[in-house]
Amino acid sequence: MGLYPDADRTAVGYGTGDQDTRPFYGPLFRAFSSLRIKTALIIFATSVALTIVMALTSQALMLGGFTALEEQAMQENLARAKNAIAEDLSKLDMIAFTWAEADDTGRFMGDRDASYLRSNFPDENFVGSDFNLFMITDADGEIVWHKYVNLVYEHEMPTPKSLLEQVPALSPATGSEAISGILMLSSGPMMIASRPIMAGDSGGVSGRVTVGRFLDQVEIARLSRQTALSLSINELALPSGISDVGERLVSGGGAGVVLTEGDDRIAGYALLRDVMGAPALLLEIDAPREIYREGQNAVHYVIIAILLIGGVFSALMILLLQKTFISRLEILGGRIAGIGKGGNLSARLDVDGEDEIATVAASVNGMLASLENARSLLDESRERYSRVINEAKEIIFTLDLEGNLTSVNRVAEDLTGRSRDDLIGRPVREFIAPPYLHLIEGSLTGKIEKVQEKTVEIGILSKSGWLHILEVRLKPQRQGEHSWIFGIARDITELRRTEEELDLHRNHLEDLIRERTDALIRANASLNQEIIDRKWAEERLASEKKRLSVTLSSIAEGVISTDTGGRIVLINEIATTMTGFTREKACGMGIGSVLHLRDAQGKEVAARLLEEVLSGKKVLTLSRDLTLSGQDGSEIPVSISGSPIHDEGENVAGAVVIFRDITGTLKYEEELRRQEKIRSIGTLAGGIAHDFNNMLAAVTGNLSIARMDVPEDSPAYSHLCDAEAAAFRARDVTQQLITFSKGGAPVKKTAEIGELVRETARFSLRGRKSTLCIMIADDLCRVDVDTGQISQVIQNLIINADQAMPEGGTIEVKAENILVQQEKPPIGPGRYLRITVGDHGTGIPEEIRGRIFDPYFTTKKEGNGLGLASCQSIVRNHGGFIELQTEMGVGTAFKVYLPASQKPPEKPEEGACPAERPEKSASGMGKVLVMDDNEEIIRVAEALLRRRGFVVEGAADGLEAIDRYRAAQEGGAPFDVVVMDLTVPGGMGGKEAVRELLAYDPGLRAIVSSGYSDDPVMADYRSYGFVDVIAKPYRMADFIAVLKRHIRKSGD
After folding, report:
1. What is the structure's pLDDT at 412?
2. In what order do the strands lie in the sheet with 596-598?
3. Among 52-61, 465-474, 654-663, 836-845, which range has the highest average pLDDT?
4. Residues facing 1006 on adjacent strands
5. Contact 113/146 with Cβ under 8 angstroms?
6. What are the CA-CA distances from residue 677 to residues 410, 744, 820, 863, 961 (Å)?
């Protein structure tokens, strides 16, 4: 048996047993056997691809030609239809010419004899000549006589008012030219022809004869029959989806436009111009696509022919390849398989011909000769390798992956005292001493992936029981799918015995050295401790000095330390900056010469304060009414404190003075006082606005009822409309009061407001002298805002900017993203959207800048002083702030900061109610329960809703509403919608009542209505159980629209 596991096995491809003898030739044979299928697939795929390409090309070319032919035919149809209309106009012109040239007509213009009219213009003449209108005007364009005949009923009817107004105005009575064409009237388009009536003697124009016929559906039907086309003539409005055709029709110089509608219909469009040459009507012809369908049929025939030709071509190619190529490859493959199965490497293939297949056969013969030679060389190499292994001085062995010995050399037999046959096939664990087994267990797992190359020392037992220490090196091997472990072992038993004796001598020497070292350590211990104590004291002193320096330089206050004589011995960086003295210059000077502190009366107090600290031996603090003057003349309000410094004997050794800049603190306190003032006024304004809204709700409701009872043409109707408009203007004022007082509780949504800024700015400046310069960043970030309130802020700022420039000017509006790096009261660092509105007016005087955001403060004759106050309140409730920048003689800019949002934009709520609807269309049906503590509001709501078809009941508070709702539900006639007032003094309001009703009926559809538009419920009504909201006072059309939307949903 050889060293390797397969040493005694017959080489692959050379054996004669039952093993697979086709590892080299099998894949080639299988490739040949499937070549027929692959060739057929390639030919088939190529034929299909060529067929598809030819079919698509034929379709594109042929259908393109048929489409062009079809469009040409439609253009001819359009020209034929326009010629038919022109022919009708020519007939009318001939009629006008005949009557204008008649002598009787000329005499009539002179004597105005009515018998001329009775004898010449009976109804039959109109019907027979197929025209509606005959009109005679004098030289001044005044109508002398006219007659209108309805061609359907064939008798005279009153001439339409539009004809009497427009036809005479069109006719140039003082001119002698003829006029014909289409005239667009309010009653419909009319084909007219007008000719001058020439005076017999003077040769001048005495009047005109105008003849007309309506281009109505009857006339269009007659034209359709005449031209055998499907015609329609409409006002100049293009069909949906072809709005891009408009410019082509207007600028096309009379050419029509042809559009296809799928594979079934084709339409042509042409422009008809009026008598003035302006675009007037759209002529449309609709027809089936017969030419196109014939083209499709022709394409189908071509595709079928191509498919048949491709199939025949593929079959012929497959048969030809089978005869000349594939069958010969099958014969060659069979011969190669026979040689591989028999293992006879001396056999050779027959080589017939000189083509590529013959070349393959010759190459296989060459390969067989090479393999025969290689097998001979391999046998010789195996014999030499076996001799080398058996003569080696080390143990050489192999294991399978389970740890069984598969080969060993002669040295292994000598060391173990066992023969090769006794070792082969047995687990190597049987020969390893138990203490060493764990060193190789991890490598004998049965998986080559877990075997790692390593070197270990193990002990093995010989047959006589002698223990041998071996240094073993294991290495995993892989050949194809076969894996094993190769090992080399060296006997190191004598080496380890020698090392143990050396370790004994070494340990004794170390004990001697250790005893001497202990004596030296004890001698140096006291010296080392003294050195450590001294170094610790020095490090602590340096650390304290560094900590004091860092502390003084990092604190925000100025620090000055003095001796008992008031001379400065220490000053930090903040103090040098505030006083203007350098550290080198200040040290040694008296504190009064550096720290120029003045009280409210302007007296120097630094030296006096230091004297009090040193003499009183206590801390002294002053936080108000002190001013520090710097060397550059600047003055800073400061707070100051002083404390004595004591030595170890508790004696005063000096003093430390700390002072701080309180400019920001004073500004913050001033802002707090101003905000408290605004909140106080705002609370009062909010209460007044709520009561006023309730009164306005009753007023607007009664005005709506009064308008229903008054005809629209009554003078009182317009007065009622004006009164209602004034009431809603008053509502706007109250809304500004609420917005100012509490911000109007914005209903925030995530939105991109670039377009809102642009549209609001343009709308606000409409009709004014100033112009806009708008700059909106392309990447404007989203914000969480109430778009209505932000629009109000922009509108107020635009109006203020325009009023600041009475003679007009340019208002600059800019929206951009900005990153605030540091604290900028009252907002913190972060990403913001900044809207800037700037003017080039005179600026705002410094003495009133602090009051411009106060409510009711204004410098204008008109206005109520709530504009900027409302703006500030709205922006503050959005988490932002308004910054003012102004310079006298240059202009003013207001900058609005709004926090950026990371949320995606919200889509508008589906089914939202429009802002305004005509009350005549505001009607519906359903059962409504109205709860309000104001009896007048209930009475008005009941009257209005009943007139619009609703069934209405009222309730004075929440308890009554709950009782009525339950009674209606149990009685089988439930309410569709419940409208609830939010607050009821002394009773249950809507917020409490809706919770109980939802517990009783989860399907409840409740709408909240209140004059408190700033209440949180109004802004987030869905969180409280309501389905919608409407603020009082409201327009009745809006109220009914909200009801109809939710009654319809409940019905669905």
Report:
1. 84
2. 568-571, 558-562, 652-661, 635-646, 620-629, 596-598
3. 836-845
4. 978
5. no
6. 110, 18, 29, 22, 40
DSSP assigned state of 101? H
| pLDDT number for residue 237 | 63
Q: Collect all residues with Cβ–Cβ distance below 8 Å to 635 and sequence separation of at least 6.
A: 627, 628, 629
The per-residue pLDDT for 345 is: 72
List % helix, strand, coil for the chain (3-state, nearest 5). Answer: 50, 25, 30
Look up residue 234 and give its amino acid: N
Helix (H, G, I), strand (E, B) or coil at 743: coil
Residue with tokens 């090479």: 370
> Residue 711: phi, psi to the nearest 5?
-60, 150
Residue 250: strand, helix, or coil: helix
Q: What is the CATH number of domain 746-904?
A: 3.30.565.10
pLDDT of 852 strictly over 50: yes
The candidate with the shortest Cα–Cα distance to 405, out of 442, 430, 386, 382, is: 430
The domains of the chain are located at: 102-221, 230-288, 392-491, 555-661, 746-904, 919-1051
Q: Are 102-221 and 919-1051 equal in CATH topology? A: no
| Assigned CATH class of 392-491 | alpha beta
Would you call 224 helix, strand, or coil by DSSP? helix
Helix (H) or strand (E) holding 413: helix 410-416
Q: Give the contacts of 655 (CB within 8 A, at least 6 positions apart).
A: 561, 562, 610, 613, 614, 642, 643, 644, 645
CATH class of the domain defined by 919-1051: alpha beta
Amino acid at 872: Q
Whether 146 and 159 have beta carbons less than 8 Å apart is answered as: yes
**Pairwise CA distance, residues 489 & 469, whole Å:** 10
Contacts with 64 (C-beta within 8 Å, 6 or more apart), sequence order: none
Q: What is the pLDDT of residues 132-156, one digit of tens each?
A: 888 888 888 888 888 888 877 777 8
Secondary structure of 884-928 in the HEC alphabet? EEEECCCEEEEEEEEEECCCCCCCCCCCCCCCCCCHHHCCCCEEE
DSSP readout, 291-358?
A: HHHHHHHHHHHHHHHHHHHHHHHHHHHHHHHIIIIIHHHHHHHHHHHHHHHHT-TT------SSSHHH
* Sole residue written with tokens 């040493």: 7
**Overall size of the chain counted in residues:** 1052
Residue 311: CB partners within 8 Å, gap ≥ 6? 47
Q: In what order do the strands lie in the sheet with 188-198?
A: 155-156, 143-150, 133-138, 205-214, 188-198, 179-185
The mean-pLDDT minimum among 213-227, 348-362, 654-668, 725-739 falls in: 725-739
DSSP 795-829: HHHHHHHHHT-TT--EEEEEEEEEEE-S-BTTB-S
Buried b (16+ CB within 10 A) or exposed e, 877-894: bbbbbbeeebeeeebbbb
